[in-house]
TrEMBL record:
Classification via InterPro entries: Aminotrans_3, Aminotrans_3_PPA_site, Class-III_PLP-dep_AT, PyrdxlP-dep_Trfase, PyrdxlP-dep_Trfase_major, PyrdxlP-dep_Trfase_small
Keyword Transferase belongs to the record: yes
Natural source organism: Anaerosphaera multitolerans
Similarity-based family: Belongs to the class-III pyridoxal-phosphate-dependent aminotransferase family.
An MF annotation (GO) of this entry: transaminase activity
Family annotation (PANTHER family): AMINOTRANSFERASE CLASS III, LEUCINE_METHIONINE RACEMASE
TM stretches of this protein: none
The protein, known as: Aminotransferase class III-fold pyridoxal phosphate-dependent enzyme
Keyword entries, A-Z: Aminotransferase, Pyridoxal phosphate, Transferase
Listed cofactors: pyridoxal 5'-phosphate
Entry-linked SUPFAM superfamilies: PLP-dependent transferases (SSF53383)
PROSITE patterns: AA_TRANSFER_CLASS_3 (PS00600)
Pfam families (UniProt xref): Aminotran_3 (PF00202)
Length: 446
């Protein structure tokens, strides 16, 4: 068969469920290495989204591939729900070490961010004996029933599949992007915290709440964080009311923001941390790591899966941690992130459509508005992304109008310069009216 992107996409559409895909560009991967993806027609792309924050160590990192091959040569799987495997034991020790909190911690392994969110919901309910869960409007926590129930980013996630988990309350996320009308971060935080607390005054008895789930940097809403002071007030509120604080680090974890976990930017220690995506460099693995007494409150076999913590994925995760440490990737994320933010600030001098540039390491959001900076523009961001794709970049958008810049942490100086030069060119072409509206028919996305 003569493989072309379109031929394979047609087959994909014939056989694969629509609910599992939000296609941005017609790229069918043939091979990938480092930050470069090659499609079946031989075109190469620099991936600026790390396959949705999965490839923090880049595609097929030699170390990861080596450790996976070595483990496969020993054994692929052994029934670790009845017996024991060494990679899993070693990995749990490492995870406990890199996760914030100077208390005794334990690990529950999973396969996707979503099912580990469910683990955290179960642990929070079991430990506290309470049923209510708080999460935030705009958050994405995943697609299992529990994770969908606490998400609030897309009506289609809730349509036609109910009833969902009961006793879930979605409150307003304190978006720092709304801080501009306030005199100081402290004023803004106090105001937002007051609004948060009001929910517990009028209709949610705090003593019935098991946990607050928060993305410390909310991802799919457009990469926005609350102010640090708000996060500290939230921690205090949880402590005073016997509520657990759960950080969803599935998108921002494993070095992406220049720290192992993004909650560290707020100097707040959560009771549970949920991780996934990047942890095994592309192998399906997730985990919830946190207070031993909370984790161990789920009765056996309340969260047991046959392939949980599989030996090959555990080996991949162990080498992912090793690579992040040995290649000093936390610092690298911070340094490259500063360079990207600087380049976008330079671009912003010559365009009227960039409204906000925000970044933590290699999580960078660039928000685009119409020329008058009044209306968030989905069409603008689509045009920019599509033209980038035509120039060999994989760059998408979140929250409707925010460019999602989250490249692999191993991206070289040369590669990121090449990518930023192309992005600069695209903005120039936009300013000169060279990106036609017809491009809008080509890109669907989320
Ligand atoms: C913040 C966050 N939480 C949870 C999830 C769900 O993870 P998964 O798709 O691995 O189930 C995602 C996925 O995008 C995410 O970004």
């Amino acid at each position: 068969m003569n493989k072309t992107n379109q031929l394979l996409i047609d087959l994909d559409e014939e056989y694969i469920a629509k609910c599992t895909r939000a296609p941005y560009f017609p790229i069918v991967a043939k091979r990938a290495k480092g930050v470069i993806v090659e499609d079946v027609e031989g075109r190469e792309y620099i991936d600026l989204i790390s396959s949705a924050c999965v490839l923090n160590t880049g595609y097929n990192h030699d170390e990861v591939v080596k450790s996976v091959k070595e483990q496969i040569d020993k054994y692929i799987h052994f029934a670790n729900d009845y017996f024991y495997t060494e990679p899993q034991i070693q990995l749990s020790k490492e995870l406990v070490e890199i996760t914030p909190g100077e208390f005794k911690k334990k690990v529950i392994f999973g396969f996707s961010g979503s099912d580990s969110i469910d683990s955290a919901i179960k642990a929070a309910r079991a430990y506290t004996g309470r049923s209510k869960i708080i999460s935030f409007i705009g958050s994405y926590h995943g697609s299992t029933y529990g994770a969908i129930s606490i998400s609030a980013i897309d009506l289609n996630m809730k349509r036609k599949i109910g009833p969902l988990l009961p006793e879930v309350f979605h409150l307003k996320y304190p978006l720092s992007t709304e801080m501009k009308d306030f005199e100081s971060e402290e004023d803004f935080s106090k105001r937002k915290f007051l609004e948060f607390e009001e929910n517990f005054k009028y209709y949610i008895p705090a003593e019935e709440v098991a946990a607050v789930f928060i993305e410390p940097i909310i991802g799919d809403l457009g990469l926005i964080a609350p102010p640090k002071i708000f996060m500290k007030l939230l921690r205090k509120f949880c402590d005073e009311n016997g509520i657990l604080l759960v950080a969803d680090e599935i998108q921002q974890g494993f070095g992406r923001t220049g720290k192992w976990f993004s909650i560290e930017h707020f100097e707040v220690v959560p009771d549970l941390v949920v991780m996934g995506k990047a942890m095994a460099s592309g192998f399906p693995m997730s985990a919830v790591v946190g207070r031993e007494e909370v984790i161990d409150s789920i009765a056996m076999p309340g969260q047991l899966f046959t392939l949980q913590g599989n030996a090959v994925t555990a080996a991949a995760a162990l080498s992912t941690i090793k690579v992040i440490r040995e290649e000093n990737l936390l610092k690298r994320a911070t340094d490259v992130g500063s360079y990207i933010v600087k380049r976008f600030n330079d671009i912003a001098k010559n365009t009227s459509i960039i409204k906000d540039i925000r970044g933590w390491g290699l999580t960078i959001g660039v928000e685009l508005f119409d020329e008058k900076k009044i209306i968030p523009s989905v069409n603008l961001v689509k045009k920019i992304c599509y033209r980038c794709f035509e120039k060999g970049l994989i760059l998408i958008y979140l929250g409707g109008n925010t460019l999602r810049v989250q490249p692999p942490l191993i991206i070289s100086d040369l590669e990121i310069k090449e990518a930023m030069d192309k992005i600069e060119e695209v903005f120039r072409e936009y300013e000169q009216g060279e990106i036609p509206d017809s491009i809008l028919n080509e890109i669907k996305g989320w």
